[in-house]
Fold this protein.
Amino acid sequence: MPRPSTQQFVPIQEIRDGVVVLKSGELRSVVMCQAINLGLKSADEQTAIIMQYQNFLNALEFSIQIVASSRRLDIRPYILLLEKRLESIEGDLLRIQTREYINFIQKFNENYDVMSKFFYIVVPYGIPVGMGTPAGVLGGLFGSKKKSDSTSTEAQEFEEKRSQLEQRVSVVTGGLESMGIQCQLLDTPALVELYQKTFNPGELHSTAGALGQ
């Protein structure tokens, strides 16, 4: 008996136009956020930020998911960059100092886990296919639509849902940016990379600047 494919356990149908389409028909957008170091703020600033964050959450009329991801940082691109620059350095003293710096970074990375941390806001929209719409409940009783009509309807429904989802994303990013939190809406390539690393954590490491460019 053949074993079920691992893809059957992944709830994602496809990723297109910067939107995650679930098998249920629901949509998801993912916003990456830069953390704020409250320890560097004064007591009054900390209180103000916390109150703003509380008001932001209370004002939302829809649910969101906040995900914190920590991964070991891949410093190989940075080391290769230093090695390349080392070739163009003319002064002996500067070459020696650069080589010592490269060795220090390599040994430090071997002895300690240098981690990169990312915060993501998952913004949802939509209801599962077959729920809440007459066509989903009664479609089987009155026959199926033509394939061309069905494709056109699906494309129209996707655009309508995406428009509503974009409005929700604007509410979320606007609220976070008012607190001084930098936000970036992930596009299709960044979403693919993110979910590949999520479902295959042992295969890929975060690289410097990943998803942040």
Observations:
- DSSP finds six helices and seven strands in the chain.
- The longest strand covers residues 115-125.
